[in-house]
Amino acid sequence: MGRVHRRYTDVCLVVAAVIAAGGVDVGAAHGHEARGRAQVARSAQTPADAVHRVGAASPRSRTVPENRRPVPAAVPYTAPTVRQPSRRITPAASKTRQASPGPAVRTGYARTAQTVIHIGKWSRVVKKGGQGLVNGCRYAVLWAGPTPDAHTRGTAVLVGHNYCGFKRFATLPVGTIVTVTGPTSVAEYRVYGHRVINRQGGSGAGLYEGDLTLQSCLGRGTGFSYLRRIA
User: Where is this region: Disordered (predicted)?
Assistant: First the structure.
């Protein structure tokens, strides 16, 4: 009797296990079938229904406008303008006539109708002549050589009596500027040396030098100033 009861119990346990396993399989089958029907129902919906359902708002929802700031339009890039420095146009040099000889630069003397010797503010007209003209005490007498100007070559000799205002001819300091103006030019001379002899009159050989020699009596002798043209 005990063995029959044990066998019965074992058989019940086996049946229960089989039923349990079958229940699991049946539940799984029912689950798969339900999911298949849901997929078919979703695929049967029309696009309009889908859009309608997606766009439909719930009674409690409200539309919130989007706060979108306008995007500025793109500005085309342009290179910065660089201002070029202004340039003044230099006028073309005009043709001018060659100016006639004017006054000397250092002294400012202008040409004169007659030949005139200037020593500072003192001046005398130059005339070519002899002893008679020298004795007249009016002119600086051109005793020998060419008329002094800016174009002559050779030694010009001007003489005058000391008592007629020509004593300065024998005593000009070295470096003194003497100007001779004339019809064609203005010439400048500078004193560079002196000589004194113990006689008055006689031959002048060897006593004249430079571009201009000025001669006058000096006491009982005769004095000479020697000048070289500088302009």
Answer: 41-105
